Amino acid sequence: KAGVTQTPRYLIKTRGQQVTLSCSPISGHRSVSWYQQTPGQGLQFLFEYFSETQRNKGNFPGRFSGRQFSNSRSEMNVSTLELGDSALYLCASSPEPGRDYGYTFGSGTRLTVV
Amino acid sequence: AQSVTQLGSHVSVSEGALVLLRCNYSSSVPPYLFWYVQYPNQGLQLLLKYTTGATLVKGINGFEAEFKKSETSFHLTKPSAHMSDAAEYFCAVSDTSGTYKYIFGTGTRLKVLA
Hints:
The structure holds two protein chains of two kinds. Helix content of chain A is 0%, strand content 53%. By secondary structure, chain A is mostly beta strands. In chain A, strands 2, 4, 5, 6, 9, 10 and 11 form a seven-stranded mixed sheet that branches. A four-stranded antiparallel sheet of chain A has the order 1-3-8-7, with no helix packed on it. In chain A, strand 4 (31-38) and strand 5 form a beta hairpin. Chain B is built from no helices and twelve strands. In chain B, the strands form three sheets. In chain B, strands 2, 5, 6, 10, 11 and 12 form a six-stranded mixed sheet that branches. In chain B, strands 3-9-8-7 form a four-stranded antiparallel sheet, with no helix packed on it. Chain B has a two-stranded antiparallel ribbon with strand order 1-4. Chains A and B meet through strand 4, strand 5 and strand 10 of A and strand 6, strand 10 and strand 11 of B.
């Protein structure tokens, strides 16, 4: 069974540009969450999608957005990139929203903003 | 609001020695707790989870954790460390404020000495 697939694995962007990251959840999983991991702030929740609807959003500026498609695949977009956006972005999936599932994480996309 | 504290950002053990990684949580309701492991340049892998029921939870790779409500702890242990256990370990609690996001601790980097 394929795991959570994130593409691309690595990205280098320039300040002011925008970027789109992609996540394909495990087959049958309909809930997708995104987290940002940095050395300074650790792992922080970005947003959660279920049935193409954003259910929750973390404390990030409006430059961070996302969406989910009918096949449960998800994308997140960061516009007007800042140096501080350099991070590992992790996508996680579960069958549906719920406290007890235990999310399955992808290997992440490492974004470097120069 | 929930929170997680991991004592010790770095832990070193000798190969074959006991591994003990500490996690304390704060939650106003019965918590759902998780331990994840992250290898270099990888995503997070679920080691084990506590939702309800038995307080001693066994996970993958020989790890186990015990939920102690009176001590608000969920420490991770492994009787005998292997070199392959060297990684970063994260404790997480599932939010109860209406989202299912995870609140992660700051992580503990485990070093295994030959």
